[in-house]
Amino acid sequence: MSATPEGLTLALFDLDDTLLDGDITGLWNQWLIERGWIADAATHRATWAAHMADYAAGTLDFEAHLAFLLAPLAGRPVSEVEQEVTACLEARVLPRLFPGGRARLDWHRRQGHRTLIISASTAQLVTPLARRLGCDAALATGLEEIDGRYTGRAKGTRTFRDGKLRALEEWLEDTPVRETWGYSDSRNDLPLLEAVDRPHAIHPDAALAAVAAQRGWAMPCWQEAATDEGA
């Protein structure tokens, strides 16, 4: 992302454990279990826990993870999934957003900056949430559709680790950029944070906290509404 004086200023927000107290996909999984879309809840929860341990360790097989997550949607009408997503966002996700994260989104908007949520979670969840939050765009792994139904397969760029940078470059195309801000909690987003002008580690995991401390990156807490504007 090369800077130009007349380009956009972008604020890039990770979602899970950054803007959101928790993981949107974990909340969605529980919602689907309660709706009866996942028959073997115990096995599903055990697999999810194993994948989250791999994610925290930086060893997650993302393709296997996507196949696991999207299997319950295979053959489901897109419209039916959209209805469930809307209900889940209202009941489980919006109440868990960090006050400081919402305040930071508002601060960037007041500065005239473009705000993007860029998440490893999948697009059927991330895109409508970004819309609700007034963000300019959402970058997330897409879901394949055929004849108005989900196939259970992912499509397009996987927005995980350095895939977030690829997705951002595709979104920008040749749009000039003046300055970039980045916010994340996870070691898996080091490629993104290293690429932006103003990186922020939000409630960072141990690996990211060590890097942030060494490099002098800001580490604000978003559990409360107050934030240091301009930091």
Structure write-up:
By secondary structure, this protein is an alpha/beta fold. The protein has nine helices and six strands. The chain has helices spanning 24-35, 41-57, 62-70, 78-93, 99-110, 123-132, 163-172, 190-195, 206-215, and strands at 3-13, 114-122, 137-146, 149-155, 177-184, 198-201. A six-stranded mixed sheet has the order 4-3-2-1-5-6, sandwiched between helices. The protein is globular and about 50 Å long.
Average pLDDT reading: 94
Radius of gyration over C-alpha positions, nearest whole angstrom = 17 Å
Total helical elements: 9
Largest sheet: 6 strands, mixed
Q: Which structural category fits the helices and strands?
A: alpha/beta
Order of helices and strands: EHHHHHEHEEHEHEH
How far apart the termini lie comes to 21 Å
Strand order of the largest sheet: 4-3-2-1-5-6
Q: Poorly predicted ranges (pLDDT <50, ≥5 residues)?
A: none
So what's the overall shape?
globular
Q: Which percent range fits the helix content?
A: 40-55%
- The beta-strand count equals 6
* Share of β-strand residues: 15-25%
What's the short version?
With 231 residues, the chain is of the alpha/beta class. Helix content is 44%, strand content 21%. The protein has a six-stranded mixed beta sheet, sandwiched between helices.
SSE blueprint and pairings:
Blueprint lengths: L2 E11 L10 H12 L5 H17 L4 H9 L7 H16 L5 H12 L3 E9 H10 L4 E10 L2 E7 L7 H10 L4 E8 L5 H6 L2 E4 L4 H10 L16
Parallel strand pairs: 1-2, 1-5, 2-3, 5-6
Antiparallel strand pairs: 3-4
Helix pairs in contact: 1-4, 4-6
